[in-house]
Design brief:
By secondary structure, the chain is mainly β. 0% of the residues lie in helices and 42% in strands. A 6-stranded antiparallel sheet has the order 10-7-6-3-2-11, with no helix packed on it.
């Protein structure tokens, strides 16, 4: 399903409200003046309020995308899109893309 491409500066949150950011955006593909994000690089999560053990298994620290664009790649890696799937570590909860550029759509 087509969706906007994620980029450095897109608003992506963990399920608990922490801000997620790509660790290695791809400078070869620019969308709205920002480097696009690819499937291979992990994301860092900051500000997750989920409590640590024994009250919970958090907070979210990193996240890895497991599904991105199927037909659009950069350097052999799929670009990330808003309908992609990511899993946070150590909680196992998903990332939620909230705001991204709308000019570039990928499948």
């Amino acid at each position: 399903m087509p969706a906007p491409v994620l980029h450095q500066g897109a608003t992506v949150l963990c399920s608990h409200g922490g801000q997620a950011m790509p660790t290695v955006p791809d400078p070869r593909v620019m969308v709205s003046g920002m480097p696009a994000a690819t499937l291979s690089a992990p994301w860092v999560v900051v500000g997750c309020p989920f409590p640590p053990p024994p009250a919970g298994n958090g907070p979210c620290v990193t996240a890895q995308w497991v599904m991105g664009a199927v037909r659009v790649t950069s350097l052999g890696q799929p670009l990330l899109i808003m309908t992609g799937v990511a899993i946070c570590v150590p909680t196992g909860t998903p990332l939620m893309p909230v705001v991204a550029q709308t000019r570039v759509i990928a499948t």
